[in-house]
Amino acid sequence: MVELEEIVEVHAAMVRRIATVYERYPDRVDDLVQDVWIAVWHALPRLNDHAMLKTYIARITQNICVTHVRRALVRQAQPLSDSLPDPAPAPDEAAAHAMRLARFVEAVRSLPENLKAVASLYLEDMPVKDIALALGISESNVSVRLHRAKSAIRLSFGDPS
Amino acid sequence: MTSLSPHDPLVTLWQTAPKPDTQHLLRDLQRLNRLHQRLNRSVFAIMCGTSFLLIFAEATGHVTTHGTLSVIWILGLVLGLVWRRRARCSRSDALTLDTVSLLESMIARAKSDLLVGRCLYAGVPCGAVVGFFVAKLAGISASPSAIAAHAYLHLIQTGAGMAALTAMMVTGAILARSRRLQVQELSEKLRLIKVDL
Fold this sequence. Notes:
heterodimer; A: mainly alpha; B: mainly alpha; 83% helix; flat
């Protein structure tokens, strides 16, 4: 359990960020995150190359998020909310940053499925080769999608710099 | 491992998202692990207990079912093991396959489940009707003397048969509906991810 604790500590933020792209509602994000960590936990004994841990966990997260089937009817009945913290009680600068981040997450979330999968892994700083391997598509395909995803994000969100 | 664009402001902004509460997550994982172990132990104890009782009762002649209960029990165990093995395989698929291959295997599995669901809700009543007419034509039924001796037995048997048929049809309908939705949604995702640009 000690090893898992360390891994969770290092990669929990990444797993949650990817899950947030696929699910808007915090309770469903929690469920997804829990599913991912259970899968990682079960897979840990079989993992030989610890240098590839980040890629491996990102791939598991991506797979679990993409293949999770939504229950649209249930979801429509739920109130709209976001897993990002409410910016109201925070100081001005932090509140502005949180709002900016929320808009960014929304921009990524609203991408079509084929661009979203590539963008969510790219934003976790994964190289094109690993993204292609994780998704099972060619590297050139990843590059084209990445270009389109970044254009679409900049169009709806603006330039972050 | 080199990144494509280490100074991309989009990546920098993305990684400033607040860190989640890992202590809460770890507590949940530990709790789930304990529950899982407890459930495994309970299921194992129930299975051992029931098997022992069944073997004891049938071996000593307390139950005159001529091994029928044992056959049903072993069949249930085999089905349970197959289901468990399948669940384990589907969980390990997410760890070993890429997204496209995983979606393809999930669609194939959902389609086979859909077929089972359709067989249950459409095949079972058809089979029952065919079986009824075949039994009538072949003259297979309980003798009038047996029916007269156990007046309620015939009624109970018919009721139990109808209840089993209804349960199978309802299960089939629910399974088919959920798998149809799954096939639709996963196929759409696969089409979007697989499409060549």
